[in-house]
């Protein structure tokens, strides 16, 4: 996979448009199914049919497109075997494993704050707002004029 020297991806995705690293990462994993594809492949190699069954609701067309984009970004490896019937297996590259590791804290946050029914997820506890720490205001000190 040839890199462009800027994004490390085969093709420039949004040249000059990234405002931060999170923005650049979101460009790679954006899309309804990409993160769950990464999660499924993090569990191990999958053939296309098994991957589709692991992701209920995804269409064959969308899964194919998302896998191609992840492959082009160097996140997913596609291994094609010359057999009858044809066999294709998908797995994570080292870059994909690193991306999954970076997403692990996000998954932990989702479990703690959404799946477990916290107030922010619509629980009954009410307001979950945390105010920022007060900023100390400088108090003028009288200067003695002797």
UniProtKB/TrEMBL annotation:
Domain HTH hxlR-type: 20-118
Pfam families the record matches: HxlR
Biased composition (Pro residues): 133-146
Domain of life, per lineage: Bacteria
Entry annotated with the keyword DNA-binding: yes
Gene3D superfamilies: Winged helix-like DNA-binding domain superfamily/Winged helix DNA-binding domain
InterPro entries, per the entry: HTH_HxlR (IPR002577), WH-like_DNA-bd_sf (IPR036388), WH_DNA-bd_sf (IPR036390)
Region (Disordered): 119-146
Keyword entries, A-Z: DNA-binding, Transcription, Transcription regulation
Chaperone in keyword set: no
Protein's recorded name: Helix-turn-helix domain-containing protein
